[in-house]
Amino acid sequence: MWDKRLKIYDELVAKCPRFERKGKTMPYTSANGYMFSLFNKAGEIGIRFSKEVQEKYMKELDTTIYKSYGATMRGYILIPDEMLKDLDNLANYLNESFDYVMTLEPK
User: Fold this and answer.
1) CA dist., res. 82 & res. 70, Å (int)
2) Which of 21, 28, 34, 71 has its CA at a distance of 20 to 30 angstroms from the CA of residue 98?
3) Nearest CA to 23 among 36, 71, 86, 80?
């Protein structure tokens, strides 16, 4: 299950040429000094947004805040399984997240 989900995460990130996947044991994407997507040990994908956008998407997508390794990840939403069926659409969310972290003060 985890390996299959990791393949989906890799395919998702590959659809976004402006950045690449990092991490061996904890796959993630980062830019401007900020992580903006994560793949946890439960095989779940989390994507980071501004507080306002996070709240909007949690309602629209009927999802929750993302948790990874027991920690609540502030600003991240849990990507519902249903969204994994349309990676082109999901890539739009990941690109939006990348654009968001690029507006933050570099770390």
Assistant:
1) 23
2) 71
3) 36
Q: How many residues can be counted in the chain?
A: 107
Write the single-letter amino acid at 107.
K
Q: How far is CA 96 from CA 4, 53, 102, in A?
A: 25, 10, 10
Tens-place pLDDT, residues 72-93: 999 999 999 999 999 999 999 9
Specify the pTM: 0.97
Q: At what angle do helices 2-14 and 87-103 cross, to 10 degrees?
A: 70
| Chain mean pLDDT for the chain | 97
CATH of domain 2-103: 3.30.1460.30
pLDDT at 69: 87
Tokens of 58: 């949690």
Domain range summary for the chain, segments of one domain joined by +:
2-103
